[in-house]
Amino acid sequence: MVLLTFTSMRSRLHVFMFVFLLLPGFIKAAGLEDTISDYAKTLPRDTNSVNKLIALAEKAALTNNDTALRYAEEALVIALELKNVQAEITARFNVGIRNIYIADYVEASENLFRALELAKKTGDKGREIAALNSIGNIYAHQDIHAEAVKYYEMALAIARETGNKKREAIILGNIGNIFYQLQFKDSANLGKAVNYLRRALDVHRSNNDTDRMITGMNSLSLSLIDLKNYPEAEALLDSSMRMMRLIGDSSNITYAYSYIARIDRDKGLYAEALKYYFISLDRAQSVGNLDMIMDCYLNLSETYESLERFEDAYRYHVRYAQMSDSLVNTDNTRIITDLKNRIRAERDEGEINQLRQEKEISDLQTERTAFWVTVLVLGIILLVVTLFFFYNRARSKEKANRRLSEKNAVIEEKNKNITDSITYARRIQRAVLVSGKLAGKNFPDHFLFYKPKDIVSGDFYWSYTSGAKTFFIIADCTGHGVPGAFMSLLSISFLNEAVAEKGIQRPDLILAHVREQLISSLNRESAGDEPGEGISPETGVQDGMDAVLCVYDSEKNHLQFACANNPLWLLRGGAFIEYKPDKMPVGKHPEGNKPFTLQSIDLQKDDIIYLFTDGYADQFGGEQGKKFKYKQLQQKLLGLHRLPMEEQKTRLENLFESWKGNLEQVDDVLLTGIKI
């Protein structure tokens, strides 16, 4: 592929034309090609050298398809020098496969059709199956489903006839992938795809074929994702990725990361989806997988669109469209068909030429010369037209970039104003939280770890002291950022109303009062808005909060509390006691206004109460990028509980940052420990 820079194109156009006419063909990466070519020249001209170069090509394919192609092409050169048909079949087949991976379908077709004809002549059924299957892959890559199935079925018939179970399983998987593509025309095809892919995977497992098991698990997981069978799909992808890491397969792992991202996107976890799509894109670019690079661009565009980040969505859609135009077009289909017919015609010509007179042979050679002269002239004309097209396109792109820069300046100014406003809102929110801090005469020994995901937070803490009783809450409102912050301020105002104004003492009744006020305030229908009361536009879920509200009596050393979706942990005597929550939020819920459960504890000296939201346990990180989870949090707290409370806080903060590493913080974090 030639990459041309069109800056100052007027002054350079004649130079490009002159160089092209002197050096027909594409300019390749000279350093890589020369190194492999020099190495090939040192090898003996025999079949062992062909096999050695093919083995190097297959090994290189795990990390870089361009390198693999160079080795395969050098193997073909030696095979042609030897005039060894079997070596030529092997080399042409390998070159064709590498061409498919870099989306050069024309070269792939020429080599694979020639390999197919030679395999038929020599009666090599195994190579014939492989060539037919790979030709089917070419059509499948271009969404020409009928032609793909035709060649797969031809290959499948020979595989069954010869009892080649390994090849039969590969072809069953390919047919399954075709049905998967056809599901968009008829949803019933998705079930057929799963059936074929399961059969193929079972055979691969019985053969202990690791490479094919990886491909089979990736393909089956994609169909299961479309069926929304996420648990089985995630299990398959987990097994597939472990195998790929063991064998160092960088080529197929890009598909697995893309499918993991697809699951997260379906679940609405857009930040996680973006992370894995970028990992997939990086892997695809490192191995030169152009089809997967194009898919990643499309998926990134759609995910950013779901997040309403339209500038980013537009940027990646443009990249996708540019690649789509260059890789998939109707001309490729016509060229492949012409090549197939020409190769067959050449085969028949070879047989007929043996019976023709020398004059007829001479006439045929003259016709061929005229044909190639015509092709050369047409090629030169096509080049001129193409260069002119790209020149105009470069000028248009330059104008578009200039307009985009102007728009970006406006957007940056607006973003600055918005950010300044949100930063001021943080000062207001922090002022409210500080006024309700947990510190006081009843809680002299405690810590509070508070780390918002954005500038402002949906997590909040609040307390109120009246005589010997201290009321305190740790809560997680719907969403984070600005929507969550508004919810937190609204909830705090209702808590003050319930305790300070109305004098409600029981935590279950306080939560019931706050729930009633939230539902009333957020009922859109009652305000004359569109239907969809209590639904957050950010998350698509009902507005409210998950919380633990406690009332501590310092004279009786007694604790009453109510839990909405979040538990309360009591550490006593070196062991945790977990008090389960009601499985409903403080807000709109399908079960209506079901009462919250009142719970109580007679506290003892050195008891520690831990309250928290879900941000700490849900953070992704560590060596494998997994969630921290509640079980690990409990283990860490158990190991720290003998330390002073402020030291516990410092250790927990450091642990969180170390676990998160370079990954994005997924949610607001709030965790408190209170020692009695």
Question: Which tags fit this structure?
Answer:
disordered N terminus; 5-stranded antiparallel sheet; 676 residues; alpha+beta
TL;DR?
The protein has 676 residues and is of the alpha+beta class.
Rg estimate, integer Å: 34 Å
In percent, how helical is the residue content? 55-70%
Largest sheet entry: 6 strands, antiparallel
Report the average pLDDT across residues.
83
**Beta strands, count:** 13
Helix- and strand-based class?
alpha+beta
Uncertain spans: 1-30, 525-541
Describe, in plain words, how this protein is organized in 3D:
The chain has 676 residues and is of the alpha+beta class. It has 22 helices and 13 strands. It has helices at residues 9-22, 30-41, 47-60, 65-82, 85-101, 105-122, 125-141, 145-162, 165-182, 188-206, 210-226, 230-247, 253-266, 270-287, 290-306, 310-327, 330-353, 358-435, 481-501, 507-522, 630-640, 645-660, and strands spanning 446-451, 459-466, 469-477, 544-553, 558-564, 568-572, 575-579, 586-587, 599-602, 608-612, 620-621, 626-627, 669-675. Strands 2, 3, 4, 5, 8 and 9 form a six-stranded antiparallel beta sheet that branches. A five-stranded antiparallel beta sheet has the order 1-13-10-6-7, covered by helices on one side. It has a two-stranded antiparallel sheet with strand order 11-12. Strand 4 and strand 5 (558-564) form a beta hairpin. It is elongated, with a radius of gyration of 34 Å. The chain starts with 8 loop residues before the first helix and ends with a strand.
